C-alpha cells in the first residue's frame, strides 16, 4: 500500500496534535536511533557530523502529542548510513525484535541516514513477522538547518506508527509527507525533502517473512552493465569470494555479449545471479534473445528482481543465501 504524499496545513497538524483525548493506555512508540543527517549538525569546519542523541531528537517532537502518545528513545549507533554493513543490519533487526518482544509497544520508528535507508528497510522487512508497524525515517537537512525536515518526518512517523492502517503491511518509510512500503522504495533525489519514491505497485506483493536471517559474514556484489562492459568486474567479485551477484542491467534487464558470457560461466559455477535494472521505473522483464538478452539469461537461470533496484536486490539475495531458500521465492511473489 502506498499512501499519497500530502502536506498537512497548520490547521490539520494542530487537529492531529490536540483532537484526540487522552486514553487509559496511550500508544507507546519506541524510537531507535542509528545516526544519519537527522542527528547531524555542522562542526567548526562546516562539515556535517552526528551529534544529537535519539533522546534529543525525540524531546521537541514528543511535546506536540501533549501526553497522548508515550515515546521512548533508544540509541543503537551514530553512523553515516553510507558506512552501514551487513553486521549493522543484524544489529538493527535485533534491536527491533527486542522492542517488539514487549506486548505493550504499539510500534517502532528507526531514524536512519537516507543514503542507504532503502537497504536497511528491506533488510528489516525480510524478517518482520509482527503486525505492529516498523517505520524508517530521517532527514535531508541537518538538525541545525533553519528549515530542518527531521522533526517533521519524525513527528509524522510516530503518527503513522500509532495508526491501525499501518499494521500488517510490513516495514514502511515515512519521509517528506509520503508513506512508502519498503519493497521497491528508492532514494530518488539527493537533496529534495521528498527524498524517496517507489518503483512498486500500489500494493506491492510481499513474501512470507523469513524466520531468521544473519547478514554478517556474507558477501553479495553488484555488477553494473553498460555498453562495452566485459567480465573484469564480475570475475573480480568471484575471485574475492562472492556468494551471489546482482547485475544492474540495461533496459528491462539486458547486458552486452561479453558480460553475458561471464554470467553464463558464473551460473555454471553455482553462483546465484539476480538481474535488476538501472532504469528508474518499471519491472525487469525478460523479452530479448541474443547472448545478453533478458530472455536468454532468464532461461539460463538468472532471476529477475521484479520492482526492486540493485541495492535492495542485493539484500534480498543475501537473505536467501543465509536462509538457504531459492532466491526466486523472495523476488517472484
From TrEMBL:
Keywords: Hydrolase. GO terms for biological process: asparagine metabolic process. Residues 12-23 have a biased composition (Polar residues). Its EC number is 3.5.1.1. GO terms for molecular function: asparaginase activity. Residues 219-327 form the Asparaginase/glutaminase C-terminal domain. The active site is at residue 37. Residues 1-27 are annotated as: Disordered. Gene3D superfamilies: 3.40.50.40, L-asparaginase, N-terminal domain. InterPro entries: AsnASE_II (IPR004550), Asp/glu_Ase-like_sf (IPR036152), Asparaginase/glutaminase-like (IPR006034), Asparaginase/glutaminase_AS1 (IPR020827), Asparaginase_C (IPR040919), L-asparaginase_C (IPR027473), L-asparaginase_N (IPR027474), L-asparaginase_N_sf (IPR037152). The keyword Hydrolase applies. The keyword Hydrolase applies. Residues 28-198 form the L-asparaginase N-terminal domain. It is an enzyme of class 3 (hydrolase). It holds the Pfam family Asparaginase_C. Substrate binds at residues 81, 114-115. Belongs to the asparaginase 1 family. This is asparaginase. It comes from Corynebacterium kroppenstedtii (strain DSM 44385 / JCM 11950 / CIP 105744 / CCUG 35717). The lineage of its organism: Bacteria, Bacillati, Actinomycetota, Actinomycetes, Mycobacteriales.
